[in-house]
Amino acid sequence: MSEKLGLPQKPAGSCIAPISTEATNSEIKSEPQQESHPTTREVVEELSYPNKVKFALIFGTLLLSTFVIGFVGANATDSNCVATIIPVITDEFHSANDIGWYGTAYLIPSCALIVFYGKLYTFYSTKKIYICSFIIYEIGSIMCATAPSSLVFIIGRAIAGTGSAGLVSGSKISIISLIVPLHRRPLYQGIIGGVENIAITAGPLIAGAVTAASSWRVCFWISIPIGVVGAIVLIIFGRMPDTERENLSTVERLKMLPTSSILLFLPLVILLVLALSWGGSKYSWNNFRIILMLALMTALLVTFISLQLYKQDKAMFPPRIVRQRSVLSGIVFIFCVSASLYVTAYYLPIYFQAVRGASTFDSSVRTLPLVVGLIFGSFGGGYFTTVVGYYTSSMILTSILTAIGSGFLSRLRVNTQAPEWIVFQALFGFGCGIGFQQPYVAVQTTIPRIDIPIAITTVAFSQRMGNIVALAIAQNLFTNRLIANLTKTVPQVNANLVLSNGVTTLRSTVEPKYLDAVLAGYSLTIDQIFLLAVALCSLSVVGSLGMEWKSVKKGRTGNT
């Protein structure tokens, strides 16, 4: 019975099934191995998996952490509680200029540290790293819940993002590999993805209801008891096997950490975000501050790339893995699709609350078509790939449908009827869902097992990096275009005052005779931001067409 349900059993020996000659030869031909690179034949797992009770408790903890990240964090869609309550936060702090930072502050450490945590999990206690990540995440949530100003809220988001990198890396890669046999992992990873989608769906509704009944701060307090329960369960029951490198000395561990790469990457991304956010809005593009930031960023980027080439397999991103066709195509594809989805989901609540006058709860309900479309697309894409065997066709379909859907969304107006914005969102979400997970499937199909963890974290890094860059550009567009549009259509209104007052206060701060023109200017600004999503979706076709055509059915022979 347990075998039918896919529950892990304690193996007598190795948990890896025999690798077929055909699969192994295919891998060797597609990626020539050097002596320093172990082949899949040399990779042997000898793990003693937890019994059913302990497995259920540990896996339940992973699901709890996934729900929290999906609800409060900044994930692929960000159509969660934070996106819904941002307009209310800007009203309280008078900080419409900081809208982009509420997501970016979370994403920068989450993106930069996900590979770093992946390294930590290879030679430190998995349980200890995961619990520490939980604690860091909860500290950030508490800071957000008690923030007296926009700056403190942004710092809290950054701390929470630091913890989330460890939680994501642990739940999706490290812990799953320690508690579930290889041939069962896709099933349980699929369950984790389903819970994340449920959290994304429930997030706006819960946030809208909680904010309407109490305060937006309660949304961050919700994660605290969940984190405490999860940590207690792991401390008591979470006995997991040692990692193969856990017995290394401290000096050896430190040498294996990509510390120098992280120290270069963090200021690089911060400078990039600042330049994209301030250029043309706070400062002109030829201002010495912007020029200096771009110059420093370029120098750091060149140094970072040179370091990766120098360190090769010890680099944060080993060049031989990044150059692999499916990995490189997946990086381009997920960067574009995730960025377009993030921007769309981030600014849709602003459209409904600012332009249409919806409450936080009504706004969350009106954005459900996007998330529901994403969920159905995810299931449909997974089923299609399972039946047909090829994931590339799903990715091409994503590029087509998302470009069409985002194009429709860029036509939203003050008086757009409900059937239209429902269909537009659903089409875009469905298109994203079909191919969103396929780059991760491609990596596991085309890359030798020994390289899969670093390849997956590289693709995940690209996904988050796309969100960071797109949100910074969108924030710049929002600030610049809103001021330009209002100045052109309603010169009698102080555009900077409208921008600083907050998103949901338009109807109370703008004179009635100018309100329609201001709303039209706001709507036009958001439409122009959605054009960024159109461009990104169109560019994603480079990644989808570049992907290798390999069947997961053939790949299973060597991966089960």
Description:
One of its GO terms (cellular component) is plasma membrane. Residues 58-552 form the Major facilitator superfamily (MFS) profile domain. This protein is mainly alpha-helical and 560 residues long. It has 3 domains: 46-249, Growth Hormone, Chain: A; 259-315; 324-560, Growth Hormone, Chain: A (Up-down Bundle). It has 26 helices and no strands. The model is unreliable at 1-46, 74-79 and 556-560 (pLDDT under 50).
How many helical stretches? 26
Strand content: under 5%
Q: What's the total number of strands?
A: 0
The general outline is: globular
In N-to-C order, the SSE pattern is HHHHHHHHHHHHHHHHHHHHHHHHHH
Helix content: over 70%
Structural class, please? mainly alpha
Subcellular location: Membrane
GO molecular function, one term: transmembrane transporter activity
Region (Disordered): 1-39
Main location: membrane
Q: In terms of topology, how is this protein built?
A:
Layout lengths: L1 H4 L15 H10 L21 H21 L8 H13 L5 H25 L2 H21 L3 H30 L5 H29 L4 H4 L1 H15 L12 H7 L2 H20 L9 H24 L7 H4 L2 H31 L4 H7 L1 H21 L3 H18 L8 H19 L1 H9 L5 H38 L5 H7 L4 H4 L2 H28 L1 H6 L5 H8 L1
Helix pairs in contact: 2-26, 3-7, 3-8, 3-10, 4-8, 4-15, 4-16, 5-7, 5-12, 5-21, 6-7, 6-10, 7-8, 8-16, 8-17, 12-13, 12-21, 15-16, 15-18, 15-19, 15-20, 15-21, 15-24, 17-19, 18-19, 18-24, 20-21, 20-26, 21-24
